[in-house]
Amino acid sequence: MITFVCYPKCTTCQKAQKWLDENRIPYALRDIKAENPTFEELSAWHRTSGLPLRKFFNTSGLLYKSLELKNKLPDMSGEEMLQLLSTDGMLVKRPLVIGEDFVLVGFKEAEWESRLKHE
User: Fold this and answer.
1) Whole-prediction pTM value?
2) What is the pLDDT of residues 6-19, one digit of tens each?
3) How many CB atoms lie within 10 A of CB 96?
4) How far is CA 3 from its chain centroid?
5) Is the dihedral of CA 11, 13, 18, 19 positive or negative?
6) CB within 8 Å of 41: residues ≥ 6 apart
7) What string of DSSP letters covers 41-95?
8) Rounded to 5 degrees, what are φ and ψ at 105?
9) Under a CB-based contact definition with an 8 Å cutoff, are residues 16 and 6 in contact?
């Protein structure tokens, strides 16, 4: 079963959850604000996803903007980025879908369709 990591008040997360339900894809729900991802989890998800670490940042979030991360990220090491992400779930782009051998970041319906409907 996949883990669906989301912020329940986020409209994109709500749309993604509706998509999972409509497609009858079973998942374990995890509220990113209530249960912040750990440094270890984020490191593993990053490795599994194959994506650049900056893709894990919620660039439209208030916290991202208030910390001026757009200017700071280019000078940060991967470890520093992961440490920062692990301090607050609101910094992490969502929704996330974590499978055994894949991680999807953000809701892109075509990507979800090709990945999740063939599991």
Assistant:
1) 0.94
2) 999 999 999 999 99
3) 26
4) 11
5) positive
6) none
7) HHHHHHHHH---GGGGB-TTSHHHHHTTHHHHGGGS-HHHHHHHHTT-GGGB-S-
8) -115, 120
9) yes
